[in-house]
Amino acid sequence: MDEQRISSVLQEERTFAPSREFSERALISSSKSLAKLAKSAEQDVVTFWEERAKELAWFKPWKKAFTWKHPHAQWFVGGSTNLSMNCLDRHLADARRNKAAIIWEGEHGEQRTLTYHQLHREVCKASNMLRSLGVVAGDVVAIYMGMVPEAAIAMLACARIGAVHNVIFGGFSSAALRERMNDSKAKVLITQDGAIRRGETSGLKAAADEALLKCKSVKHVVVLRHSGDSVAMKARRDVWWHERMETVTAECEPESLSSEHPLFILYTSGSTGKPKGILHTTGGYMTQVAYTSKVVFDLHDEDVYFCTADIGWITGHSYVVYGPLLNGATIVMYEGAPNWPDAGRFWDIIERHGVTIFYTAPTAIRSFMKWGDQWPRDYDLSSLRLLGTVGEPINPEAWMWYHTVIGGERCPIVDTWWQTETGAIMISPVPGATVTKPGTATKPLPGIQIDVVRKDGTSCKPNEGGLLVVKHPWPSMLRTVYGDDKRYVETYWSEFPQSKSHPGWYFTGDGARKDTSGNIWIIGRVDDVVNVSGHRLGTAEIESALVSHPAVAEAAVVARPDTVKGQALVAFVTVKATHARADTKKLAALLREHVAREIGQIARPDDIHFAEALPKTRSGKIMRRLLREIVTGAVATGDTTTLEDAAVLERLR
Ligand code: WTA
């Protein structure tokens, strides 16, 4: 990253205020009450979070709410609690006992509902099952499963006995699974025979067997029977979930764990090197995840909440499982693909279960747009009252489509900015209070101190692009990179180290700008920033401009070296089905003009390549690094284990 400022060029003027009906019944119902809350948090951030923590149950109160030894924070020190108790036991004393906690739907259409009472029983049994295999507090348990209720049960069971879960996305290969089990020294692995997606079964147990060939730490494997495919069971090592669960009781007191007890490790890939094991701990994570779920999703007891993220990602951890359950909410959990058996599946789920809150990713929204409006239009989506997005900047055009076609122009959209490392939402509208603009996550939540700064640490002027930093430690922040504290310090805390004027700032790796009203516009990762004729441009903004053209479904922009401009812009574009037969030469010229019009000549792509598909991670992020390697002729050297479909890359080459 160099000293030059990041030029931010996207301008968006449309604004959307929540309706009176929405605000009237919202938990935070006006911009005034939000401002008041934000102000009190600003004056005393630690007390603000203490008050939030007090809304949860603790075995022992904390002695000190916050300690800081650069760059290591502790929250609610001396306190002890249990996350599983807060998600489950706490709700058993009132009417929530018989409320649906999880409504699960398999890809084949089968359905299961677990009430809080039933979920509690299953979690207690699973905890005892883990104990019967020798698992004790502090041990790491790997979870390699699809979207089945048992994945959530396994996580909650670990939390109940103080085991540290390491969920590995079920779409990962055996090599990726092995690397993550070895790095975390997992003692037990929980998996299933096969996971079902898009009408096919992927053999998780078979992949696990291969991974385990070179993994010494794992002593036992618990196998859930789900797809019914036959699997090899290794004597003394492997046990069936259903058999073990029959041998244990449903009584298991939650362990009293210190607030800083490790809760989970979740691996996330950096742009180079091996994946980082992000470590989260108990009390602070619980507090911020509970609070953000409540205020960002405005959770009421009658809501039916559907987050489409996989449990293998941080969103699945914080906003499929823990956050909603901490608030006693009803979760819809869906096993399969959004376009199985057809592109109407999500809308069908929303109609049948009466979903009120829907949380998904921009990449999914762009797919829905590509598949066409007729799919959602065929279903009754009138139960929806709130929409959310996460994972990357949402293009204003996709935002408008979401707002109109899915939200019926009535649902506020919460564009939530956060990271695996932050554990919980950091920047987001509060739906009953915030006036939103398509493309901005708006402002930091109360209790979160975020700024856009220059390389020298001074704050940027309005609309001046810079680096996004967090200026005060927050409860759900990562505590370290598992087994590599040096990498933790270097990656996140070396850009803005402790100084006379401040205690050290967390660098997010994102570029951003603040507009004149203080809304934050994420420009993208700083390594997705290109430099054309001395202007640093966020590729996300150019992509946004491309996607705003009616012919374009998706776009990714990278740079190649150019002797005159420094860097030239190369766009990879996929075209909507309706424009499949367009003359590509003409279309390329049109798109160049379009971008020049939307952003300016400076952003006009030099080359446009039409592609059938773009290389993406399994969580849907476009892997620009690989595209960069293609256009610069470099050999692909980095990690490609997170690539969803390797064939896409081959075709692009
Ligand atoms: C990006 C996902 C713009 C950002 C929870 C961040 C976003 C990275 C948004 C973290 C958003 C996430 N607007 N960009 N609303 N949400 N990002 O760890 O670049 O998978 O740093 O966590 O995604 O990705 P991660």
Computed Rg: 24 Å
Query: For this entry, what is the oligomeric state of its chains?
Result: single chain
Sheet/helix structural class: alpha/beta
The bound ligands are: 5'-O-[(S)-ethoxy(hydroxy)phosphoryl]adenosine
Mean pLDDT: 93
Q: Could you name the ranges where pLDDT drops below 50 across 5 or more consecutive residues?
A: 1-5
Strand ordering within the main sheet: 13-12-9-7-8-15-16-24
How much helix is in the residues? 25-40%
The percent range for strand residues is 15-25%
Could you tell me how far the N terminus lies from the C terminus, measured between alpha carbons in angstroms?
Answer: 28 Å
Number of strands: 31
**Individual helix count:** 20
Principal-axes geometry comes out as globular
Largest sheet: 8 strands, mixed
Could you give a quick summary of the protein structure above?
With 653 residues, the chain is of the alpha/beta class.
